[in-house]
From TrEMBL:
SUPFAM superfamilies associated with the record: P-loop containing nucleoside triphosphate hydrolases (SSF52540)
Organism per entry: Halomarina ordinaria
Signal peptide positions (record): none
InterPro entries: AAA+_ATPase, ABC_transporter-like_ATP-bd, ABC_transporter_ATP-binding, P-loop_NTPase
Family of the protein in this entry: Belongs to the ABC transporter superfamily.
Keywords on record: ATP-binding, Nucleotide-binding, Transport
Domain ABC transporter, first and last residues per copy: 17-249
Name of the protein this chain belongs to: ABC transporter ATP-binding protein
Pfam family, one: ABC_tran
Molecular function GO terms recorded: ATP binding
Amino acid sequence: MSVETARRNRRAASAAVAIEGLTKTYGEVRAVDGVSLTVERGEVVGLLGPNGAGKTTLIKCALGLLVPTAGAIRVGEVDVRSDTARAYREVSAMLEGARNVYWRLTVRENVRFFAGLQGIDPRTRRETHADLIASLGLAEQADTPVVDLSRGMKQKTALACTLARETPVVFLDEPTLGLDVEASLGLRQRIRRLADEEGRTIVLSSHDMDVVQEVCDRVVVLNDGRVVANGSVDDLVGAFRARAYRVTVSADLPLAARERLERAHRVERWSRTASGLRFEVTLDDAAAFYALVDDLRETDVDLVSVTAVEPDLEDAFLQLTDRVDR
């Protein structure tokens, strides 16, 4: 055994979630293709990727809901494939669509029921459950049958039931879907408290980049069933930091002048503002910037302002998954 293999095995042994060589195929389609990753205890990891990237398939395999074609998955010290029932004691999940609740029970009854499945006496958690329900904006609906709630309220109930189980590991698939702004902010705070104060591990899949950027310690990006990036938000954003500028000039430009600038300087995203005409441009160095200024002088317009554009997680994601508009 090589030193690197031994080191990787030690990391996996101490991890909250360890996935090694996970592959899931449907006929000729590889939904997940040889994915390996670990999630440390108390870590919040964001799982990103375009539709069809394999995120939900990976989560369902990790939960034992799908049998992988190949590979191994462990939650804590439990092998999910060989001891799925025991693994369920270590992990809870909310899957997209609010399907993991009983619609004929009230919100409060659902929360109590799912806590009981974990062996928790709900009578000892009355205040905790009330706080959980209230934090998601469900206090007034606590004694309403779920079937009578709106789609967003059903989503909140599913989230409350997932958190009420108090498992060491929690998977959340699109948890902010259908949440209002206040509830979404409350969820972000609760996720960080679960990790920072209770040491619980969260794997979060979401298209809401603001949520991922705010709460996650690390981001794993999937594309076509494979991991294309794995690192902190700052690392991913920094890797794609470019010399991008937002430029405003004093007057409109003829179409021919715009096309010349686009060919010469990678100019895009034209828009009119109260100050004039605005566009964005990516430049390789200072020389390219001066060349752009010279070309603008030839169009007989004045330069009003130049602002550096800082990339964010969404910019990095688009470049990693090749979804940038061209």
